[in-house]
Design brief:
With 406 residues, the chain is α+β, with helices and mostly antiparallel strands. It folds into 2 domains: 206 residues, FAD/NAD(P)-binding domain (3-Layer(bba) Sandwich), CATH 3.50.50.60; 169 residues, D-Amino Acid Oxidase, subunit A, domain 2 (D-Amino Acid Oxidase, Chain A, domain 2), CATH 3.30.9. It is built from 10 helices and 22 strands. Helix 1 runs parallel beside helix 6 and helix 2 crosses helix 10. The longest helix has 18 residues. The protein is globular. The two termini are 39 Å apart.
């Protein structure tokens, strides 16, 4: 305790880890290349769910939901950053139904008591806006939902600074001083920063930082992802829209309310990695994905696909905007959380595959626990039980990963 940690990156992961370390007595500096929230944290769909196929993630996300629900008391600020409208996974084949029922049983065994399978009759009774002919059933968890990400990283940064954390913005890491396998100091245009422990919280930027630090090359692919926003109109009222859960269509397209007047929509697509992207590239919209590209664009394909299961979406006035950002995707869609094999005082908290915002509090718990221990660990303690973190270990086999990916 009382050692000096340098956290690289001031998104949701970096600010929450810095706060967690400061509460444990660490002297902490956060280095941010641009400004707080400049990366993927400000460009996320911000969903938070406990419905995963990896048991460790189910338990970790239960912890994260609890932390976000009590965020003002645990971290700071006046606003609770989680909106618990639930997640509704719609199912269209018998195979999908069987797999979802098995997942729900596993999730319940992990303590997620409110997740349930709904047959089509129960589904349309509870959610009458779902098209009965398009689905066979669904899994539903009312304690899932979505986040206000700017609240998380801004309030976490402010709370960390109140605890004495030094936040240095416009300070990209440009060099490193090492003694063998140990980092002694990081070099930036804003100065030299000595560290006993360095924490990589750069996610999609991690591969290039690893090269700079002489760290292990992890299989992380920066992939472009898009979000579209549709303006409400027609028979769905503002209160009904605002109360909707995050809905995932059978093919993976998803939507959730941004407000009572706007619906956020997204759909993962095949994309080539962009390892050399810059900050400006985060907001670059390829023509085939822009809502301004017309009815043949992926934007309108996503809208049409969602309207097949939620017909009232057909009545919406149109798509008003397109935004973009990068996922840091791993082959098994699980993050890497642990000490780097080649740099002994470097902790990697990266590769969240689109789940970084929801992982935030669980990642902070793991990162601070690793720093305190000074070594890799097999478990962390949360919710009154030991939670294995082996599924997130650096060097794991990548054949058996998270199956529930959107």
């Amino acid at each position: 305790m009382g050692q000096r940690a340098v956290v690289i990156g001031a998104g949701i992961t970096g600010t929450l880890v810095a706060h967690a370390l400061a509460t444990r007595g660490w002297t902490v500096t956060v280095l941010e290349a641009q400004h707080v929230g400049a990366g993927s944290s400000s460009r996320t769909a911000a969903g938070i769910r406990q419905q995963f196929s990896t048991p460790e993630t189910v338990m970790g996300m239960r912890y994260a939901v609890d932390q976000y629900r009590n965020f003002p008391e645990r971290v700071g600020g006046a606003e609770v950053p989680i909106v618990q409208n639930g997640y509704l996974f719609l199912l269209a084949t018998q195979e999908a139904v069987a797999a979802a029922q098995a997942r729900a049983r596993m999730q319940q065994a992990c303590g997620l008591a409110d997740v349930e399978y709904l047959d089509v009759g129960e589904l349309v009774t509870r959610f009458p806006w779902v098209a009965r002919h398009a689905v066979l059933g669904a899994t539903w968890c009312p304690s899932d939902g979505f986040l206000h990400p700017a609240t998380v990283y801004n309030e976490a940064a402010a709370a960390a600074q109140r605890l004495g954390v030094e936040l240095v913005q416009r300070a990209p890491v440009t060099g490193v001083e090492r003694s063998g396998a140990t980092i002694d100091a990081l070099l930036t245009p804003r100065g030299r920063f000595v560290a006993d422990v360095v924490i990589d919280a750069t996610n999609a930027w991690s591969p290039r930082l690893a090269r700079l630090l002489g760290a292990t090359e992890l299989p992380i692919a920066p992939l472009k992802r898009y979000l579209w926003f549709a303006e409400r109109a027609g028979s769905m009222g503002g209160e009904a829209l605002a109360a909707m859960p995050l809905v995932i269509a059978p093919g993976g397209a998803y939507c959730r309310p941004e407000s009572g007047a706007s619906m956020l929509m997204g759909w993962a697509h095949e994309a080539l990695p962009e390892p050399d992207f810059d900050y400006e590239d985060q907001d670059r919209i390829e023509p085939g994905f822009s809502h301004r590209s017309g009815a043949e664009s992926v934007a309108y394909e996503t809208w049409a696909t969602l309207a097949e299961v939620v017909p009232q979406l057909e009545e919406f006035a149109g798509i008003t905007s397109t935004t973009a950002g990068f996922y840091a995707t791993t082959p098994d869609h699980n993050p890497f959380l642990g000490y780097d094999p080649e740099v002994k005082n470097l902790i990697r908290l990266v590769g969240f595959s689109g789940h970084g915002a929801m992982f935030g509090p669980f990642t902070a718990l793991i990162g601070a626990s690793l720093a305190d221990a000074g070594r890799n660990m097999t478990h962390v303690s949360a919710l009154g039980r030991d939670i294995s973190i082996d599924a997130f270990r650096i060097g794991r086999e990548l054949r058996h990963g998270e199956l529930l990916v959107i």
